[in-house]
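Record PsaJ protein, 49 aa.
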Amino acid sequence: MQKQSNQQGYFIRYLSLAPVLAVLSISIAFSTWAIFNYFLPDLLFHPMP
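=>
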C-alpha cells in the first residue's frame, strides 16, 4: 500500500507543476514576441515612406 500512496504523491506533484510550467513558458513566449514586435514592428502598421 505504501507504493500506491507514493505514486499518488508524485501524480499530485505533477499536476501542480505542469500548469506552472505551462504558464511560465507561454508568458515567456509572448513576452519575447511583444519585445520583438516593439523593436521591429510590422510594416502594415508602420509603412515605409
